[in-house]
Amino acid sequence: MALWPVGIKKFYHYFTSIASFVLLGLSLVLSGCNGDPEVSDQPEDAEDPDTEIGDVSQTALIYRNNCGGCHGQNLISFVEREWTYGNSPEAILTSIQVGYPNNGMPAYGNTFSEQELQGLTDYILSEIEGKTKAMVEAENPDLSGSTASDDLTFRLETLTDEIPGVPWGIAQLPDGAFLITERGGRLFLISTNRELVEVMGLPEIVAEGQGGLLDVVLHPNFENNSYIYLSYTARNPNNASERTTAVARATFSGNSLDQVENIFTALPYLSSSIHYGSRLTFDTDGYLYVSVGDRGNRDAYPQSLDNHLGKIHRIRDDGQIPNDNPFFNVQGAVSSIYTYGTRNPQGLTRHPVTGAIWEGEHGPRGGDEINRLAAGNNYGWPVISYGINYDGTTFTDLTEMAGMEQPIHYWTPSIAPCGMTFLSGDFYGAWENDLFVSSLKFEHLHRLKMDGNTVTGQEELLEGIGRVRDASMGNDGYLYIVVEGPGRLIRLVPEQ
Length: 496
What we know:
By secondary structure, the protein is mainly beta. The protein folds into 2 domains: 6-136, Cytochrome Bc1 Complex, Chain D, domain 2; 137-494, Neuraminidase (6 Propeller). The protein is built from 7 helices and 25 strands. The strands form 6 sheets. A 5-stranded antiparallel sheet has the order 1-2-25-24-23, with no helix packed on it. Strands 3-4-5-6 form a 4-stranded antiparallel sheet, with no helix packed on it.
């Protein structure tokens, strides 16, 4: 879908906001989904309900269109899981009706009918009965053979399919090995002979809700200083119930981290466990960019400069603040802020030609965005948006405003974007400089065909491959993706 004209966007925004019946999805706790505790905002990874439901298999369609993007079309997140609030029919029904907003589960008791609530509960329990993760994963698509895209034929090479938990970020080491973060709080090294080894010496990580160990990036001068950077969820040392996004720097040696130090902490700490962000990337001048979500408090933080939340930050490699940051000398402003007005940015990458930093973020229900960042810009959340609340109500009637940036591209319905990268190098022909975005909702790799800063087309690749968490260019010139369910690191190899 190409970028729509503004008039059509506004019509769609208006139409969806007044639709007489809205299909909503289930988002139970510990799913990795988001909800806004202030409103019935959409869980991050959930499907957008824009498919009309008929009488046949109604509950299955509601699940597929509204819940499958978060919990897996095959319900894998419910299989062999630990149920914080219980897995009895009564407990699941209560989760849907009452919700747990701080953990990303809105309350839907006033939105679903009693029959729909009970139907979803029964459907989940019946579909997972007797299943194991191994049984579900055995149904994954065949990755052998060639895949033809619009401009390139390629094959997939699986480096490993044994990453436990939810893999999140990728960084390739100079020797060709990989570091892979796992949201549950583990860092793995995949050696050049494809052995999986856990790296020790990590900082204390809180793996709750969407929190945990998130991104990993190497210092531009890694070969000389061995520095790596990790974004993760840290606990408030003065209040164990509160947490936030933090960044640590460490030296990587063998299979362990040394000299671990925290160089960035997003304030304030909050009790919610959603909308952390967080991606890391370096620019060509050696500055580190850190994306931080609004933590589900959209009305309090993204438009205010006195806090770190709902912002992209620019810091030196040791955590110090550059004095040319746009708000460095602004009284009352957090000096690390580079841009603001951001919801939950889980994509951050550098353009290989211009060096500009680009950001990708989850919208609520609709309105996922791709933005090209520039110092001091306001990207509008939540004053302007192409999304609506998860229950079909609106939180803004505005899609544009003076002083607020329009996205380079946006998706309605949502694709639930996660990690992203520009393709660079000579291996991939017509793909060069295109933007590749991982989709949690539709379980594919999304290609945006680029002409400079303009999206000229798009293509869905590897449909049904699983929930793609990150896409990254390796220093060997190949494009890599990391997928969950099972955790796999996959290389896309062009066929000449």
